[in-house]
């Protein structure tokens, strides 16, 4: 088991946002985190990265307990984070943004891994460009490249296709498919689009008001469940 | 007092001399403001104890000279290291707990400044001490035609430019600088990619304090050393930082402009009136450009 969450509660200030979240994930699997807006999907990602005020319960990655680690150690433990809104540093060049990812590497190399540039030729051609000048889709590619530069065990993707023009959405989906199926990277993906989740994911969890209300292999994601928890 | 006593008419030679003096004055202000700029620009902390870090640097230099006989030029890097360690301790014990509370950092660093002033007064007494600038040639003036400038001021100008250039190189040309600038832009994202922001803050505060230390070592040779000497530099240092907008290039430009303005007004009137005019100009300037000369760096908080 690569990743395990047991009875995770998460807080902003003293307000509990997530309650009793438990799931696990094997290496190479893709987990889709589903749910309506505001049910805690992003908070789940932030909790895994240690960006909420505090968490209780246990979180382990590759057998190591990460639940007490500060954020910078979690990233070094193998979480590659692609946040909602992409979190690109706009004043940095494309190269510096990818270089930022290398700071979380175990081997302390600061050179840009070749895979980052192979996947995204546009970035390779514009390394000296200020990242703030890129379009939304290009920034999303940069965010993925930056997370890959950390040499992650698990890639956390928070709404990777949100607010991006359709032709780039497909490109990003293809990239994720390749990373998961060919490179064998483990993914956790929050998604609004059920179709994308069905294509990519092996497992799903559905969240509602800070709890996991359903989970299982993706084949069990029935129309009833979708009707009950995901339609407006 | 007649108008003629107050107003010095223009005369090319002395005017050029005062322009050069203004440049060295700007350098002194920049030297005092460098550490403050780095600490404010990176961490958003307004360090009220910065003047006292300068004072400690001066006393540290005085001690190294009078007790260990260390030559002045060697005292400069040692003062940097000594005060940097002091700054690092202050950050670890105090500032790190107050990052989300800017008003409290203001108060806390002011408290540190009081402790340092009284501590130094208890140990050394209130009477002025002297730092001896070596080699002796630095104590003389450069005189070429109508230009008369103390060598020490020229030395300070050069040293300040070197320190500013070095700081720029660390920030923009090293991997460590990428870490610092990443934390400046987005602390959460920096942490999400393996950067220990606490550590970066500690080192940055230590570096800024070290710059104050080396400034103190030079100012000690320029004027007398006494417990309250920090006050004499901190006002101008803050003016430079605020007018510049809180980042390195802003401080470099604003110190040069303010130093020249001060010197030009001093030439035509006198130093007291020049300071008055300067302060009025700054107030008017900030009324229309509250973000300073280069507002870009302030978009952060």
Textual characterization of the structure:
The complex is a heterodimer of chains A (232) and B (301). Chain A is of the alpha/beta class. Chain A has nine helices and ten strands. Chain A has two domains: 3-78 and 153-229, 3-Layer(aba) Sandwich (Rossmann fold), CATH 3.40.50.300; 90-151, no CATH class. Chain A has a six-stranded mixed sheet with strand order 6-7-8-3-9-10, sandwiched between helices. A four-stranded antiparallel sheet of chain A has the order 2-1-4-5, with helices on one face. Chain A is globular and about 45 Å long. Chain A starts with a strand and ends with a helix. Chain B has 301 residues and is an all-alpha fold. Chain B has one domain (11-300): ABC transporter involved in vitamin B12 uptake, BtuC (Orthogonal Bundle). A two-stranded antiparallel sheet of chain B has the order 1-2. In chain B, a hairpin with a 2-residue loop joins strand 1 and strand 2 (147-150). The longest helix of chain B has 32 residues, at 12-43. The model of chain B is unreliable at 297-301 (pLDDT under 50). Classes of the chains: A alpha/beta (232), B mainly alpha (301). The interface between A and B is medium-sized, with 25 and 17 residues.
* Tally of strands of chain A: 10
**What is the H/E order of chain A?**
EEEHEEHEHHHHEHEHEEH
The level 1 CATH classification of chain B is: Mainly Alpha
Q: What is the CATH-assigned architecture of chain B?
A: Orthogonal Bundle
Number of domains of chain A: 2
The CA-CA distance between the termini of chain A, in Å, is: 35 Å
Query: What Rg of chain A is obtained from the alpha carbons, in whole angstroms?
Result: 17 Å
- Residue share in β-strands of chain A: 25-35%
What are its keywords?
heterodimer, A: 232 residues, alpha/beta, Rossmann fold, 6-stranded mixed beta sheet, 4-stranded antiparallel beta sheet, 10 strands, B: 301 residues, mainly alpha, ABC transporter involved in vitamin B12 uptake, BtuC, two-stranded antiparallel ribbon, 12 helices, 2 strands
């Amino acid at each position: 088991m690569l990743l395990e969450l047991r009875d995770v509660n998460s807080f902003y200030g003293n307000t509990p946002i997530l309650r009793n979240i438990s799931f696990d994930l094997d290496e190479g699997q893709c987990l889709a985190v589903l749910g309506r807006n505001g049910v805690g999907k992003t908070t789940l990602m932030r909790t895994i990265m240690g960006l909420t005020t505090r968490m209780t319960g246990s979180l382990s990655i590759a057998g190591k307990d990460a639940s007490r680690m500060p954020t910078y150690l979690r990233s070094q433990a193998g979480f590659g984070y692609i946040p909602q809104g992409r979190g690109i540093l706009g004043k940095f060049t494309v190269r510096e943004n990818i270089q930022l990812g290398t700071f979380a590497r175990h081997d302390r190399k600061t050179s840009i891994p070749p895979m980052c540039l192979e996947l995204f030729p546009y970035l390779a051609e514009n390394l000296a460009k200020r990242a703030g000048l890129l379009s939304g889709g290009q920034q999303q590619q940069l965010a993925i490249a930056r997370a890959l530069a950390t040499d992650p065990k698990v890639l956390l993707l928070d709404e990777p296709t949100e607010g991006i023009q359709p032709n780039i959405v497909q490109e990003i989906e293809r990239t994720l498919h390749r990373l998961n199926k060919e490179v064998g990277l483990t993914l956790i993906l929050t998604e609004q689009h059920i179709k994308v989740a069905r294509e990519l994911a092996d497992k799903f969890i559905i969240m509602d008001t800070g709890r996991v209300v359903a989970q299982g292999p993706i084949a069990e994601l029935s129309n009833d469940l979708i009707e009950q928890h995901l339609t407006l | 007092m007649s108008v003629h006593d107050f107003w010095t008419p223009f005369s090319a030679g002395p005017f050029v001399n005062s322009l050069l003096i203004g440049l060295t004055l700007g350098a002194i202000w920049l030297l005092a403001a460098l550490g403050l700029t780095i600490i404010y620009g990176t961490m958003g902390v307004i360090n009220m104890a910065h003047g006292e870090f300068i004072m400690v640097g001066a006393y540290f230099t005085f001690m190294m000279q009078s007790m260990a006989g260390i030559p002045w030029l060697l005292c400069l890097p040692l003062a940097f290291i000594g005060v940097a360690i002091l700054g690092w301790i202050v950050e670890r014990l105090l500032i790190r707990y107050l990052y989300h509370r800017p008003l409290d950092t203001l108060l806390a660093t002011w408290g540190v400044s009081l402790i340092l002033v009284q501590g130094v007064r208890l140990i050394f007494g209130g009477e002025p001490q002297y730092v001896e600038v070596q080699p002796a040639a630095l104590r003389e003036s450069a005189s070429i035609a109508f230009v008369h400038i103390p060598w020490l001021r020229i030395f300070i100008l050069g040293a300040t430019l070197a320190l500013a250039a070095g700081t720029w190189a660390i920030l923009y040309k090293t991997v460590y600088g990428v870490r610092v600038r990443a934390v400046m832009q987005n602390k959460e994202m920096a942490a999400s990619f393996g950067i220990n922001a606490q550590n970066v803050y500690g080192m940055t505060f230590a570096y800024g304090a070290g710059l104050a230390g080396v400034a103190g070592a030079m100012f000690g040779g320029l004027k007398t050393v006494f417990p309250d000497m920090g006050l004499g530099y901190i006002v101008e240092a803050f003016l430079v930082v605020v007018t510049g907008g809180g980042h390195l290039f802003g401080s470099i430009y604003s110190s040069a402009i303010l130093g020249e303005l001060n010197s030009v007004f001093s030439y035509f009137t006198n130093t007291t009136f020049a300071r008055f005019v300067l302060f009025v100009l700054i107030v008017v300037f900030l009324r229309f450009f509250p973000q300073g000369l280069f507002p870009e760096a302030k978009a952060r908080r």
